[in-house]
Write a structure and sequence with these properties.
The protein has 77 residues and is α+β, with helices and mostly antiparallel strands. The chain contains one helix and five strands, in the order E-E-H-E-E-E. A hairpin with a 6-residue loop joins strand 1 and strand 2. The termini are far apart.
Length: 77
């Protein structure tokens, strides 16, 4: 299961959304350590392996939750 992380950036009208294959606990710990002053950057890795770096001083909010995929389809009888 993937984890969706939404990050609000100060002075930006859009939020940054990252979908990670890491566990929700691992992502939460990375966010917590960045926000408690242990790091100056929040570093996340997305599903494709790309690193996303966000300066902690610019973070307005972070939302960590599971990513649900919705499948819509039709069945012919």
């Amino acid at each position: 299961m993937s984890v969706e992380v939404k990050i609000g950036i100060e002075n930006s009208p859009r939020e940054l959304t990252v979908t990670s294959k890491d566990t929700q606990d691992k992502v939460y710990k990375a966010v917590s350590s960045a926000l408690d002053g242990s790091a100056s950057l929040l570093e996340l890795v997305d599903e494709k392996g790309a690193k996303v770096l966000v300066p902690v001083s610019k973070i307005a909010y972070v939302e960590v939750g599971s990513s649900e995929s919705r499948k819509i389809g039709f069945v012919a009888d």
